[in-house]
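Posted in: Structural Biology > Protein-Ligand Complexes

Title: Requesting predicted complex, zinc ion in pocket

I'd be grateful if someone could produce the 3D structure tokens for the following input. Sequence and ligand are given below.
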Amino acid sequence: MQPTGPTTEVHELVKRRLAENGIRYTSGRRSVVTAIQMASGPRSTAELSQETTDDLPISSLYRTLAIFENAGILKRDHGPHGLARYELAEWLTGHHHHVVCIACGAIEDIEVSDKAESELHAIVSTLASLAGYRVLDHILEVEGVCEACDD
Ligand SMILES: [Zn+2]
Ligand SMILES: [Zn+2]
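-- Reply #1 --
Done. Output follows.
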């Protein structure tokens, strides 16, 4: 999905968050954020090492991902094959959902309209209230078969 603001705005927000943690926003780290921003969905470490423009050694990439995750810049999720993938946290990109291909493991962002989102929220609230819970947030991942696998 598209970031809410221009690319530079996300870089500014990331830079500020890192500064609060006493961490420098190096060009290598910047290139990781750019690669994640350009991606159509969450990305694994292997995918990111291909998509990062800087020649970032894999050890630096691992370290950068860990730093970003600790600083709340990235969110890590585990796809249907248990592969860890990273995406920017929702405070940077906005709320969205994922579609996952059960055949090839592809995962993509899907944006849900405000109307659909509030209907979703109502359903989720009803479900949660059955267990006496008040909803703070939800994660929805739709499993399906992508176009390439659907032949
Ligand atoms: Zn597929
Ligand atoms: Zn939602």
